[in-house]
Sequence to fold (216 residues):
Amino acid sequence: MSKYIRFLKIEENTYEYILSAICYNIIIHKLIENKNVEYEELLQSAKEKIIGFTMELDKSQVVKFQMERIKAIQIIDKYIDLKVYEYEEDKVLINMLNVLYDIYIEDREISDNGILSIKKSILSILNFEENLNINNIDFTLSMAEYVIKLRKYIINKKIYNNRVDPRSLIKLEVGEITIDPIFNQIEIIKKDFKNDILEIGVKAKSGIYNLKFKKS
Fold:
């Protein structure tokens, strides 16, 4: 997460993003472990995880981190009390809690594709994927099963050392074939640029996937 924040040059949001990632992680794992988990229990688990989370920091950063932790806890408490905010760009924790509120309490319309993707992912975990029209759903489900097996040590973990550079895919034209570190041999079958988003269709041995890159 720290590397991601430095890459996007949003260091001022470091602790907000870290705590949001922790919250997202515990929520997803709670849902995978128990699809019948209640709304309040989900949020309480996230709150407890944030309360108990510690990290090594310079003294100059301790106060900033604690203030961000308190803010995150206060936001979660509001959602437990069913007091919600509107969706807001770049507010990761609020948007994620909004998704949970929409799924469990009152469904609202979502226009942002990134937030809609999170909602679809959670609904998929809850076995509502048949109504979602999710791109690459077979790949998503197989990866979810793989992650669960890894966590339960059913299969051995291997360190992945290959470096992945998405720019190598962007440079390819339709019809070209290459070897990708993740998909192995792939063929570019589609390139479409619309609304500052480049969508690339790739055909691999395991299936056809749609990759999207947003112009910065």
